[in-house]
């Protein structure tokens, strides 16, 4: 477990407010600092990409999808360790995400410990 | 005395003034002539007799005054032409005879005139009575003709509506009247005469007899109206459905005199009701099958909609446990997290319930429904499907929209079909993908819902065909969605139609009658 993880920013991108809020709560109790965004576009416009140490993003969202966001960040040479969470991921999508550099691909609902472990792993990268 | 009769019978109106006095002169001249002829043949002294005849004729035909003139003329003629050399006494005697005769004739003519007047009066009365009688007869004939026409119309109406009318006195009485249609409905031959109550009762299906007997006995006992449905077995074995309604007629002292009522053959109506029910069931089955097909296609999206709140609930519960198991538990934070978990678990349950109600194959039940709420629920359910195709949803719901009396599941099915069609139409377009749902009140107590998109638009030249069964432009569609949607909307008293959207895409509209329109 990293000692200075409060300084690392975890960004959450999900169009569902309840998922965003509860994820923030979970990260807070685990000692992480997080910011939540309702869409990929909102995250990109916020200018927090460079200071984000870990990105947790939904895949299917209105507008830009999580996979498109990852591709966009990669294209901008902004390689943020990314954890995908999705309610309907299939194996093909999972492989696509992992090949593009994803840390983890978690189907919703996920185990809190698995998520937090993935976040820790991402931060240690 | 009737004045008109007087005019006719007393003044000899057919004879003029001159003619009447002329008759006096002529008749006396005739008497003189005849007396002269007789004198030529040596028959003397005949003028008196002929003069009396002339006076009588003049009185009779010309009246009193010409008669008196005839008497005077006769007297003068006799005095100067026949008795000029006789004694004054003899002339006076003859004058007296003429006078007495004239007076006698005056009385005779008066008597005749009075008799004629009485006859005229009686005749006038009889004529009046006769006229009145003729009028009465004409009126009676007209009333009878109208009655016959009315009876013909009634019989025709009874035949068309399969409704017979009857009157029945309870025992010891019997059937007092049966209309022609009663015979037909009950399967009796009118030539056989009015049947007895027992014969009618025997025609009732054995399984219905006890029930009917009880209803009738109670109606007789309580002197109250009755109504019952029953089956009739016709002589050929055919079973018909009938309904009878009876109304008690009470005497001045409240005693039951008879029942009057109707018998209606409801076989065709019941058959039609059964057919309608079968059709409704078939439509409901088809609607359900279509709904299930649609929902099957939406499984992934629906699972996502359920998964979101479940994920949030699991996150909340995990967070709660973590706050509680820290070295220093934070109960406030734990409580907040637990409440969030509960809230999200309930949200998941709500979504599952919505999906379940859409999946249910229940009877169509009309209830007060808020269409705006139905739209919002459907959007919540299909939001992920819209996300899947990057479609944004915009709504403009009239907050003052009246309630409707509708089957909420079926209305949601229509909304779901229209939304899914719009999403399908937009998934391959390159430009803006926007679904716009609007609700508004319209004139004539209706409300209108429109679902418009920026998709490929309606198939050109085939706008009307899209509502036909088995018409589809989708590779895997069965072409029943819009057909079923229109059928649902129309069964609710509304309309469903499509139009081009500006600048691109299609817009589907449907109306539903507001609650007041349904007479609730």
For the largest interface, the chains and their residue counts are: A-B, 24 and 34 residues
Spatial ordering of strands, largest sheet of chain B: 2-1-5-4-3
CATH superfamily of chain A: Response regulator
Cα gyration radius of chain B (Å):
54 Å
Give the strand tally of chain B. Answer: 12
The stretches of 5 or more residues of chain A where confidence is low (pLDDT under 50) are: none
Oligomer status: heterodimer
**Looking at this structure, what is the CATH superfamily of the largest domain in chain B?**
Histidine kinase-like ATPase, C-terminal domain
Largest sheet: spatial strand order of chain A? 2-1-3-4-5
- Strand residue percentage of chain A: 15-25%
H/E element sequence of chain B: HHHHHEEHHHEEEHHHEHEEHEEHEE
Residues in β-strands, percent of chain B = 15-25%
What is the share of helical residues of chain B?
55-70%
Q: Largest sheet of chain A, if any?
A: 5 strands, parallel
Please give the CATH architecture of the largest domain in chain B.
2-Layer Sandwich
CATH architecture annotation of chain A: 3-Layer(aba) Sandwich
- Total number of beta strands of chain A: 5
